Amino acid sequence: MNIIASKQDVQVGEEIVLLCKAGGEGTITWQKDEEDIDDEEKVSGIDESSSKLSIKKATMNDAGKYSCLCDFDSGHQDKIDIQLYIYEGPSFGSQKTYHEFLEGTNGMVPCLVTGKPEVDVHWLRGNQNIPSDEGERVRQLTDNTLRIEKVRREDAGLYECQAYIRGRTINQKLPVSVVVNAPPKVRLREEVKKVMAGSENNVSLLCLVDGLPKPNISDHTSLAL
Fold it and tell me: Could you give the CA distance from residue 66 to residue 9 in angstroms, rounded to a whole number?
């Protein structure tokens, strides 16, 4: 005997079709979690050695162990089982995927995800898992928020929130961009230390400006006579 299923992981709302082939003539019945399925809309015989179980729109309640039992005309009985997993999601909804933080502040990037039966969340950067250990400057909190303590310029870049249906390989990924801004810092440096008074002499000052994004620089000179 064998049960043919297109897949064992079925999303809510999808159709479930199970085909049981007994390999010999007999009476075939179906069970879910050891209880008989008597619904004629779900169970239909194909011939003396095969039967089909179909559910038009799967719900979470349809998850479980399905069994095909056959009382063969020869007098012996046989049974075969298959486990079906029903899931919903994971879904990130319409949350932000772009976050800006000021250098030196604490950055918090939420990852809000829904799904059934349970969802596990992992943060990654460059295919590297971000830890959840206390004391890590960049870590995943218990509510799945990404915390970046005292944001640095090198923290800018692309992060990824991955959500998995617990115990299965079903997953969704959400890319998140982090931008770091730094306020402008200005330093002046004299190029010429000593000059003689007079219209023929020049004084050079070098203006060094640092910041993210790159600041615009303008020069305003005033002369006192």
Answer: 13
- Tell which residue, 195, 160, 194, 197, has the closest CA to residue 177: 160
CA-CA distances (angstroms) from residue 87 to 8, 42, 197?
A: 11, 20, 83
Question: Which pLDDT tens digit goes with each residue over 146-167?
Answer: 999 999 999 999 999 999 999 9
Residues 165-183 have pLDDT tens digits of: 999 999 999 999 999 998 7
Give CA separation, 21 vs 16, 42, 55, 105, 157, in Å.
17, 16, 18, 64, 54
The CATH code that applies to domain 2-88 is 2.60.40.10
Look at residues 25, 100, 18 and name the one whose alpha carbon lies nearest to residue 65. Answer: 18
Amino acid letter, residue 105: T
CATH 3.50.50.60 for domain 90-183, yes or no, is no
